[in-house]
Every structure is written in C-alpha cells, then in structure tokens.
Design goal:
Elements lengths: L1 E5 L9 H10 L4 E4 L4 H13 L3 E3 L12 H14 L5 E7 L7 H18 L3 E6 L2 H10 L6 E3 L6 H9 L2 E5 L9 H9 L5 E3 L21 H12 L3 H16 L2
Parallel strand pairs: 1-2, 2-3, 4-5, 5-6, 6-7, 7-8
Helix pairs in contact: 3-4, 8-9
Bound molecules: nickel (II) ion (NI).
Length: 251
C-alpha cells in the first residue's frame, strides 16, 4: 500500500521511526513525501536520504503566494536541478482564506505546471474553494499534463472532468467521515484505474482517529472505506491503488 501524500517531516512527528515501523507492519512500503515551500522541500530530501520508504517532491503551496513569487520560483528551479524528486507540488489554488493573493497564486501554479511538463514529472494539485479557476488553468495544459488532484473533496462530475484532463483523483481521511457524501460517491464511481489513496498527515485523520494527529499508516482506513463502498476486498483496493501510484510517480 502507498500513502501518496504525506508530510511526515512535520515537527509533530518526534516518533518518526515508530511511524515508519507502523507503516511497515501494515504493509505500507512507499510514501510520497510532499514539500510545500523551500524549507519543507529540503526536509523532504533529508528524510528521503535517511529513510528509503520516502519519495520526495518539491513545490510551493498557494498559501505561500505573495509578491516574492519570482524569487520563490527561482529557488524552486535551482532546487529541482540539484535534487532527485518524483513530483512537482503540492501547488494549486486555495481561496479559503481570501483572494488577496489570487494573481500570485495563479502565476505560481502555472509556472509549476510548466516546470512539471518540462521535467516530465507529475503535478500534485491542491485545490480548495477554487474549483473553476483550477479547472480552467489545468485545461490549458490538457494532453501534456500528468498529475493528481490531492485530497479531492469535490463532486463526482468535476472529478470526471479532471480525469478527462489526464489526472488521477486521490482520496484521504474525509472519505471515512459520515457526512462526506460527495467523497463517498467519488470513491464508489470513478474509474478505479484513476484512484489513489493518501493521508495528508498530520492533517485530516480518518475515522476512528478523526480530530487527532494523522500518520501515514492510517492510509489503511482510507483503503478499507473505499473497499467497503466499492464492495471489493481490501487486498484488491491495495493492489490497484498501489499499481496506480507506481505508474503515476514512477516509483
Ligand atoms: Ni498536503
């Protein structure tokens, strides 16, 4: 099983060795370790050199978008030249906390999509309260783009539109929540060869740990819920999502 979106470098994980051991005990053998700014991009590298379970990425999160975006981008460009990464991101659009920096967000997002295309890497896309703008930007690159809508929480109809653009849909902890109707429909109905699983830890812990610290081993609860919804076995979901993740990230 693979956790395709983890931030296990977060300072909440002072028990990182135990976290990794719990993954191995649960047959989780690969973790995509996702950076979101200069500091965490470096941490993802450091952790991946130390622990072979990790596959690092590098990106700039939309919440980092400001008038210094050109410098941040240049730092990212030199970083990806010097370091082995498996994806660009997370990057995207987030209007949840306001739209003050919306133009910078769009510039950063487009630049990172173009970087991913140039490097032949997948993009990890963060989208919050910005569905239409995200879709319209991605559509400009349709046919050239590979990537994943991470922790997808939108409708089934929009999921199908993103899939048409060449993207995968990744589901996390919220699919296990009783009130996540849309996510359950997405889990049940999208083509299974486009489905990935993730934790986004330390955030968004699945039931039965909702509200507490999330960790990569909890991805099994996401897989179990999807198995239940699709009336398949956990082993089948494990096998299929593992294959999908290996194909997308080339890991
Ligand atoms: Ni994340």
């Amino acid at each position: 099983m693979i956790d395709t979106h983890s931030h296990l470098f977060n300072s909440q994980f002072n028990d990182i060795e135990e976290c990794i051991a719990r993954c191995k005990d649960n047959n989780i053998n690969k973790i995509v370790l996702v950076g979101f700014d200069n500091e965490t991009n470096k941490l993802a590298q450091e952790y991946s050199k130390k622990y072979s379970i990790f596959y690092p990425t590098a990106g700039i999160h939309p919440s980092e978008a400001n008038e210094n975006y050109e410098k941040d981008l240049n730092d990212l460009y030199s970083f990806v030249k010097e370091n082995k990464i498996y994806a660009i991101g997370e990057c995207g659009l987030d209007y949840h906390y306001g739209k003050d920096n919306i133009e910078y967000q769009k510039l950063l997002f487009k630049a990172q999509i173009e970087l991913a295309i140039k490097m032949d890497l997948p993009v990890i896309i963060h989208m919050r309260d910005a569905t239409l703008d995200t879709y319209n930007i991605l559509k400009e690159y349709s046919g050239k783009l590979r990537g994943v809508m991470h922790c997808y929480s939108g409708s089934y109809e929009m999921a199908m539109e993103f899939i048409k653009l060449g993207l995968y849909i990744s589901l996390g902890g919220p699919v296990t929540f009783k009130n996540s109707k849309d996510s359950k429909i997405v889990a049940k109905q999208i083509p299974i060869d486009k489905l990935l699983i993730e934790t986004d830890c330390p955030y968004l812990a699945p039931t039965p740990y909702r509200g507490s610290r999330n960790e990569s081993s909890y991805v099994k609860y996401v897989a179990s819920e999807i198995a239940l919804l699709r009336e398949m076995t956990l082993d089948e979901i494990d096998e299929i999502t593992t294959r999908n993740s290996e194909k997308l990230f080339r890991i």
